[in-house]
Amino acid sequence: MDRRKFFKCLVGGSALSIYALNQLNAAVYQSIASLNQKFIKDNSPDGVYWDSIARHYIFQDDLIMMNNGTVGPMPEPVFNTLMKCFKVQATNPFDCYNFFPQKKEEVRTKLAKFINASADEVAINRNTTEGMNLVANGLDLKAGDEVLLSSFEHPAGIHPWKLREKRTGIKIIEIPFGVPPKSVDEIINPFEKAITPRTRAISVSHTVFITGLIFPFKELSEIAHKNDIFVVADSAHGVGMLDIDVKQLGVDALASSPYKWLGAPTGCGLFYVKKESQDKLLPLIASSGWDTDKTARRFETLGQRADPLIFALGEAIDFQNIIGKQRIERRIKTLAGYLKEELKKIPKVRVHTPTDPYLSGGLTAFSIEGVDPEKIVNFLREKYNIVIRTIGRDRDRTSGVRVSTHIFVSTKQVDVVLEGVNHIARNWGIR
Fold first, then answer.
1. Phi then psi for 104, rounded to 5 degrees?
2. DSSP character for 126?
3. Are the C-beta atoms of 404 and 363 separated by less than 8 Å?
4. Mean pLDDT over residues 25-53, rounded?
């Protein structure tokens, strides 16, 4: 069944049977498995492999989605599973408390393995914002205790600490560094110098939404833990973009939003807390289990949830696993690297994202001298149907636009972005 007929069935009310949806998913995975076998010795930087993968994502006709940093699209199997499970919930509510809890634990185990954690270290919450609030308001902090942030944090990484500052008198210290930073030391050294005997926590974006920087957490965690400092990573974009290994990162906690790069539906998030660090946090919402559960499950006592969202999250993990996390990260960084190198050749363009692949991922931020970022976004959408977004701030010269290069994006589509940027740079703004 082609995509148009599939949606017509859903919208028309004669939704596909659960059996048919399962068959559709099986066909998608068989297709990808065949591609993997065909290209087993080929990293496939472009061409047939990735064109075939892209066809398994659900898009409006001709839409070129290059803003995964806000909300990403779902692969077909994820959407199928979401619809299937909502149908079960609607037609057999008994399964919501009989079968669904067991299925949810299967997803937790799958999600934990995806980031190299144990199931007891993973809570499935709603988004990164909730995870960051859990840390900021769950740590035992007193007036005068210090928390280090970078100067490029997302509002969800700043305001939970601001609220805690107002309530209990902690001290927030923001650490600046260059745009783009040229080395790991340029990023880490200012944090190391800022540590004092009162420093209790470091809360930093792993995937910096303003500039696209991938923060070197391995190096930061080593320094912080020598000083008994709790480390939390805002990795809103990390899961699905990067081959994340939380043990290598060394963090105490990590929060992410799988609906950006992993292809999960909105409304489900990942909150990882290292086993040895869990007793340092108190939950924010209390129900049965908050005081007796000895695992990260104590941080998700929210009562009844929309469990189909969680099962679709499990399907999103399956989709990426069959392609391969390393292959996905390599593809994303290859596209981003090409985009950055070509942007640097265009007059008046300033790239805000590091070129070093260790310090960058699939988010590329840039500006065009003398051109309002909003006009860049509108031009690319109106002329090419390409979706990107504005980003940044005038005060630190990060005001510009941001492009996401996920696995469903082709080099040809990146070239279209470059064509539009080149036209703007040569014909608009300061001359």
1. -65, -40
2. S
3. yes
4. 82
Question: H-helix or E-strand containing 403?
Answer: strand 400-404
The pLDDT confidence band at residue 17, using thresholds 50, 70 and 90, is: low
Q: Mean of the per-residue pLDDT values for the chain?
A: 91
76: domain range?
Answer: 3-92
Do the Cβ atoms of 249 and 219 come closer than 8 Å?
Answer: no
Question: Alpha helices, DSSP H only, in 41-154?
Answer: 48-54, 76-91, 94-98, 100-114, 128-138
* Confidence at residue 42, expressed as pLDDT on a 0 to 100 scale: 67
Tokens of 355: 């070129």
Classified as helix, coil or strand, 372 is coil
Rounded to whole angstroms, the Cα distance separating 388 from 253 reads: 30
Work out how many domains the chain is built from and give that number: 3
Mark which of 44, 61, 92 sits at the end of a domain: 92
| DSSP annotation of 73 | P
Distance CA 52, CA 176 (A): 43
Cβ-Cβ contacts under 8 Å for 20 (sequence gap 6 or more): none
Report if residue 98 sits inside a domain: no
370 and 289 in one domain? no
Q: Which of 317, 343, 364 delimits the end of a domain? A: 317
Which amino acid, residue 300?
E
Q: Which residues 6+ apart lie within 8 Å of 151 measured at CB?
A: 174, 175, 176, 177, 396
In one letter, which amino acid is 127? N
- pLDDT tens figures, 166-223: 999 999 999 998 899 989 999 999 999 999 999 999 999 999 999 999 999 999 999 9
In the chain, the largest separation of any two C-alpha atoms, in whole Å, equals 68
Q: C-alpha dihedral over 107, 110, 111, 112, to 10 degrees? A: 120
